Hints:
Blueprint: E1 6-12, E2 29-30, E3 33-34, H1 35-44, E4 51-56, H2 61-71, E5 76-81, H3 86-95, E6 103-108, H4 116-129, E7 131-137, E8 143-145, E9 151-154, E10 161-170, H5 171-184, H6 191-197, E11 203-206, H7 217-230
Parallel strand pairs: 1-4, 1-6, 4-5, 7-11
Antiparallel strand pairs: 2-3, 6-10, 7-10, 8-9
Amino acid sequence: MKQPICTVIIVAAGKGRRMGTEISKQFLPLAGKEILAHTVERFEEAPAVDAIVLVAGANALTDVENLTQRYGWKKVRAVVEGGKERQDSVRKGLAALPLDTEIVLIHDGVRPFVTREMIENSIRKAWETGACVVGVPAKDTITVCDEGGFAVKTLDRSTLWQIQTPQTFRRELILQAYDYAQKENFMGTDDASLVMGMGAPVQVIMGDYGNIKITTQEDLLIAEAFLGEEKP
């Protein structure tokens, strides 16, 4: 397989209200280092990734630029200001892609346990099919409830997946999907939903139950435990 030129957009523009801290969650310390730093370094160390675009909140641009200098991240090509919603932030990241980018990975800044295998597998599958997301089969029973909180329908768990990031696409496809969503005034739940919204298929491949998104204090405790297990 030809090795495509790959850029990852790392979205770190959220405020983290569920964390209940004054500091945005991506800057909270995890084993002595910012969560965002752990995430960026996974892609810095991934040979298949050529460039990184960081998307930050307006009040955090300087902080992210300072992290880039402090840690000496060599793949960071741009630090851009995010938008009101995540979809707006990703759009701004797409506008900052290096011109030679062929594959775009979109990843949560607070998902620091992505592995090289996940990155490489998602790139390979996106290059083959156009769009690929990582996920894991749902473990729990999922029930649809009405507005009053009463169970309406229990879904077939064997068909349900919890979708993670990275979500990976051929450049022209994800740009087309974002343009289509803007034209149709469609706000999706994630990047893959925009691709599916215009009728294009999305391949789901196995991620990892450890590839957690850190959004609560409980997640921080789990992340500390995961890092402890990774240490030799």
